Amino acid sequence: MFLTTAQAALLTMSKLVTVAPEPGGGWCVTADREMVGAVRLSTSGTSIDLTIAPKLPVRRLFFLLGHSQKDVDWHRHTTNVQKQQELVPAIAHAFARMCERALNQGVLQGYSTVEESATVLRGRLRTADQIRHRFGRPLPIEIRYDDHTVDIPENRLLLAAARKLLRERDLAPATRALLRRILVRLNRVSPLASGQILPVWRPSRLNTRFQSPLRLAELVLRSGSYEFKESPGLRVDGLVLRMWQVFEDFVTRALADALRPMGGRCLTQDRRFYLDHAKSAKLRPDFVYEPPGSHSPSGVVDVKYKQVRGTRGNMGDLYQMLAYCTRLGLPEGHLVYAAGPGTATTRHHLHGEPGVTIHQHTLNLDAEPKALLAQVDTIAEAMRN
């Protein structure tokens, strides 16, 4: 690849890729296998567009993304996702279609608390503010009231995501048209300011039809523009997904679904345990299962978005799982990998009294959704036995 020195420096600053010079004046650019997406890197005088394509087909990745969200099955709300050749256009297309279907039944309205100065009493008088700012003056008065409006957190999120996606490159004309229609429908909604914390919304009976696009909007906005603290002059504008997080969220969510009929509790990123008595070495297993009526774990899982090293296993991962099993008092633990040679499950029987058995599972992410979920069910079944 031929780049200017400034562009190569931009890519290096982003830490999304590794850049090394090649003989003949070219550059070898290697992507971080845990990051996918499309971004524009820029500084005061230089910019470059970078696209990191996922190794998985977009439809498979989209299934992982959708399944990891709470009670949302995105592939039921979208059409033609499999025809999209790139990740960002597929996300934009799916978001636009979901919003269109939800908004066709009307813009969501809700109550928003308003505090303002007025000449007529409406709602409640803010007595403390009235005394503090207008002591001795009857007008204007400081009031607080609930206004039935479309300017609510749900609509602000949808508007912000639509505006962001419209800035992306390589969108189909039909997708752009749908996104612009969203802006028109939400023209009475206040836009989010740059850098503003995303507003909080809560699932309810009233916003049921908006929950799928809202979760996708949060994904778009949280995977969007950001600045690296190590390189404050660098701006990265676009969508970047961390594949390790996508994979971890999918596995833990699918395991929780598979174990739900058994009852009990499924805990993710459990922070209750320490390896030492001084509580200086914190443990944080990705997934812990507690059977009904018990507060002690009966199963532990750690998820690795990488390839397992054959039947010998990854020594660091084995040591980590051994620590989990030792601290939790479990005879077995489970490691789940995204890829690897050999059989789907390998067992490692470790020395000790009474000894620990570590199950090493490999998922085939290119399998059809039902087959992939069946693989996770197999892991859940092993945890139950």
Characterization of this structure:
The chain is of the alpha+beta class and 385 residues long. The protein is 34% helix and 25% strand. It contains ten helices and 15 strands. The strands form four sheets. It has a six-stranded mixed sheet with strand order 10-11-12-13-15-14, sandwiched between helices. The protein has a four-stranded antiparallel sheet with strand order 4-3-9-8. Strands 5-7-6 form a three-stranded antiparallel sheet. α2 packs across α8, α3 (87-103) packs antiparallel against α5 (153-166) and α3 packs across α6. It is globular.
Strand content: 25-35%
Mean pLDDT: 84
The helix count comes to 10
Report the span from N to C terminus: 53 Å
Work out the radius of gyration.
Answer: 25 Å
Given as residue ranges, the uncertain stretches (5+ residues, pLDDT < 50) are none
What kind of sheet is the major sheet? Answer: 6 strands, mixed
Determine the structural class based on helices, strands and strand pairing.
alpha+beta
Write the layout of secondary structure elements.
Layout: H1 5-14, E1 17-21, E2 27-31, E3 35-42, E4 47-52, H2 58-68, H3 87-103, E5 110-118, E6 124-125, H4 127-134, E7 141-149, H5 153-166, H6 173-185, H7 211-222, E8 226-228, E9 231-242, H8 243-259, E10 265-268, E11 287-290, E12 299-307, H9 315-328, E13 332-339, E14 345-350, E15 356-362, H10 369-384
Parallel strand pairs: 12-13, 13-15
Antiparallel strand pairs: 1-2, 3-4, 3-9, 5-7, 6-7, 8-9, 10-11, 11-12, 14-15
